[in-house]
Amino acid sequence: MSWRYVQPVFPLLLLVSACALLIALRRRSRRAVATALASCLLTVLWAWPPCHYLLALPFELPYATPLRQEERVDAIVVLSGAVRTPDQLNPQALPGYDTYVRCAHAAWLYRERFRVPVVTTGGGQPGYTAAEVSATLLAQMGVPKKHILFEKRSRSTWENALFAAQILRQRGCRRVAVVTQAYHMRRAVAVFTKLGFEVVPAACDFTISGGPFQELLPDGTTVRRNELLFHELIAYLWYWIRGRV
After folding, report:
1. Does residue 231 contact residue 202 with C-beta atoms inside 8 Å?
2. How confident is the model at residue 34 (pLDDT cuts 50, 70, 90)?
3. Contact status, residue 132 vs residue 78, Cβ threshold 8 Å
């Protein structure tokens, strides 16, 4: 998963908890102690896997149904994810976790279900855009290069869909399988539908698949996942305000 977004909630909870504890130690009032305990509890819950499961359900559960065997699409669209840009110690651009998982799922769909063009999306620096990194990865995973198309200008989910739409319409594609993480799928489906496409959700990387009690101890992975859910909620509301969904 990508760390390119600001992670605001957990640091804020830590700050509030620290301030509440200091106030409780100084004043020793019931209200101050109750506030400190509540803020500490919220901080722990934000890092607790069962809490994430409950928060993720409305994002992921609608897309947890496997694709029907008779399902047909005109193209597969892989939304852009994180890319690790080259530097002195890492001379080549590498896919981030979310990019790798999306490409792996798209390659599986191509091999096992849909022998149709695969469109990769995402901009970046010349020579290592997200679309190009994804295209290289898909080729390594068995998708023929002649069946891989890409747009390398987009910088957001909306632009992923907007610029991919130009490629899809040129080829007469109206029904598309959209590949992205399950928590991100609601917004992805909404923007492609807004642009006039019939969307087959092809979600991957479900965090609810292990059930609510697969892990019980608070951890950093849960914090990261909840921050991404928070970002997704804010982004969906922003898209709704701007008429993109």
Report:
1. no
2. confident
3. no
**d(C-alpha 15, C-alpha 227), whole Å:** 16
Q: What is the Cα–Cα distance from 174 to 148, expressed in whole angstroms?
A: 17
* Distance of alpha carbon 19 from alpha carbon 91, whole angstroms: 44
d(C-alpha 76, C-alpha 118), whole Å = 5
First vs last C-alpha separation in the chain: 24
Residue 5 has pLDDT above 80, yes or no: no
In terms of residues, how long is the chain?
Answer: 245
97-112 vs 130-140: helix crossing angle, rounded to 10: 50
- CA quadruple 42, 43, 46, 49: dihedral, nearest 10: -100
Of 207, 201, 214, 213, residue with least CA distance to 228: 207
Domains in the chain (CATH in brackets) are 9-60+216-241 (no CATH), 70-204 (3.40.50.620)
